[in-house]
């Protein structure tokens, strides 16, 4: 009799647990949908944008300028990765490259200021280099192009890396000093600024996967760097707003979406939601509440005048979470197209990313969106699908102010070297010749018409 009762209790407990898990999974499937459109039935040229919508492109100093000496060049030498070297020789060819911006007809250019050029050793400033950036700003303004500098785009001086970089909060005053120096020189002409580019990418690639400098692999250190980057952003934001309250200051946040490989799996769902929280949710909470990953971040709450959104794809994950580059295998749905980078083209996710950052209650600038495509066979469709998604989001009331295509031209793609080609202009790195791709011509027509692509 007793055995029968225990069997019944056990069966009831198992049934209750199964019902609970099924109910939880059903809830998650409804609360976190993964939409896929029938693109064959969508006219992606049927797009419209409001008067004053800003069209642009984006680059980063280490990826295009050439002749650098910083944490990245040290890392390239130490690990045997492909050296960035001369890159696009943009430091010597920036005037010609700005002509490419004018040819495209864009009205905004997002670029980064290379700290290691300005302060190659502690306290020793290269005023000539800062003067060159000032000339760049003046030239852009003369062309009717809005300068949008980013103060940290993955690279910084070697001496600062040797001190621990963002892994040590005690180093943040030196980063602040650099930001204030640049801001004081340029803010009389530059209205909009990004403090830090993709803090989660910088943290995870440098301190979990080991593919960015300093090449560490520690989850605890990754979390510390994430918190310190939020602290650095907050400190810089508050200081620069005091110096010039009229300036518009934000951050460029990569929003990668995490979806379960099996949407009925009781294992895949928790992994996907955990990764989504660590990559996106914890950061958004830091901006909205001033608390992040168990710590209070002074000044972080409300430290955005706009949010820059970098969007590329979604990550389909399951039982095993990636902790090294070899674990980072990009899965895709059967109907999805894989890009040269390996991840799938998933334009539908851009709307999910827009809705995610919209909760911050500030204007949205699309600060990066593009695809590695050396043959330019996928980029035209990729471009138009994403522009269509943005157009629809604006119709639905989302406050999106700009779109910056990544990138203006082929460049050094960090750990991937030169094999990934993201440019609207192709670059022959032997001759440094730039050639407009067909996708660049499509983008130029869109910018010129501001409505349809035909």
Task: Explain the overall architecture.
The protein is an alpha/beta fold. It has two domains: about 1-30; about 40-450, TIM Barrel, CATH 3.20.20. Helix content is about 45%, strand content about 15%. Strand 13 (about 425-430) and strand 14 (about 435) form a beta hairpin. Helix 8 packs parallel to helix 10, helix 9 (about 200-205) runs antiparallel to helix 10 (about 220-245) and helix 12 crosses helix 13 (about 380-395). It starts with a helix and ends in a 5-residue tail after the last helix. The model has no long low-confidence stretch (mean pLDDT about 95).
Order of helices and strands: HEHHHEHHEHHEHHEEHEEEEHEHEEEH
Remind me, CATH topology of the largest domain? TIM Barrel
- Mean pLDDT across all amino acids: 94
- CATH-level-4 superfamily name of the largest domain: Glycosidases
Can you summarize this structure?
This protein has 454 residues and is an alpha/beta fold. It has 14 helices and 14 strands.
């Amino acid at each position: 009799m007793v055995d029968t009762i225990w069997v019944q209790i056990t069966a009831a407990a198992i049934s209750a647990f199964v019902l609970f898990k099924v109910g939880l999974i059903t809830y998650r499937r409804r609360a976190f949908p993964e939409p896929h459109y029938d693109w064959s039935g969508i006219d992606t040229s049927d797009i419209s944008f409001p008067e004053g919508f800003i069209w642009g492109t984006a680059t980063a100093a280490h990826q295009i300028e050439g002749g650098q000496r910083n944490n990245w060049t040290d890392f390239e030498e130490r690990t045997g990765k492909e050296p960035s070297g001369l890159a696009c020789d943009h430091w010597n060819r920036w005037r010609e490259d700005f002509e490419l911006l004018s040819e495209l007809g864009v009205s905004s250019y997002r670029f980064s200021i290379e700290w290691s050029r300005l302060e190659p050793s502690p306290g020793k400033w290269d005023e000539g280099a800062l003067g060159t950036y000032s000339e760049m700003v003046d030239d852009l303004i003369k062309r009717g192009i809005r300068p949008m500098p980013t103060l940290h785009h993955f690279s910084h001086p070697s001496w600062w890396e040797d001190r621990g970089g963002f892994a040590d909060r005690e180093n943040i005053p030196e980063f602040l000093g650099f930001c204030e120096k640049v801001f004081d020189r340029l803010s009389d002409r530059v209205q909009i600024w990004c403090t830090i580019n993709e803090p989660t990418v910088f943290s995870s690639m440098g301190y979990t996967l080991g593919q960015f400098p300093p090449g560490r692999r520690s989850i605890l250190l990754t979390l510390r760097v994430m918190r310190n980057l939020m602290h650095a952003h907050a400190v810089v934001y508050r200081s620069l707003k005091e110096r010039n309250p009229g300036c518009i200051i934000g951050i460029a946040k990569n929003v990668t979406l995490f979806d379960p490989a099996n949407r009925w799996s009781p294992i895949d769902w928790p992994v996907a939601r955990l990764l989504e929280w660590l990559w996106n949710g914890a950061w958004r909470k830091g901006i909205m509440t001033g608390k992040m990953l168990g710590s209070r971040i002074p000044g972080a709450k409300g430290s955005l005048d706009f949010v820059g959104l970098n969007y590329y794809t979604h990550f389909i994950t399951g039982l095993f979470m990636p902790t090294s580059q070899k674990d980072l295998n990009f899965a895709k749905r059967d109907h999805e197209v894989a890009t040269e980078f390996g991840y799938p083209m998933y334009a539908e996710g851009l709307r999910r990313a827009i809705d995610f950052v919209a909760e911050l209650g500030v204007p949205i600038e699309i600060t990066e969106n593009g695809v590695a495509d050396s043959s330019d066979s996928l980029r035209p469709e990729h471009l138009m699908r994403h522009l269509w998604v943005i157009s629809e989001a604006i119709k639905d009331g989302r406050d999106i102010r700009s779109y910056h295509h990544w990138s203006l031209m082929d460049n050094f793609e960090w750990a991937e070297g030169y094999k990934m080609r993201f440019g609207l202009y192709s670059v022959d790195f032997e001759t440094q010749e730039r050639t407009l791709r067909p996708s660049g011509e499509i983008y130029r027509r869109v910018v010129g018409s501001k409505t349809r692509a035909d």
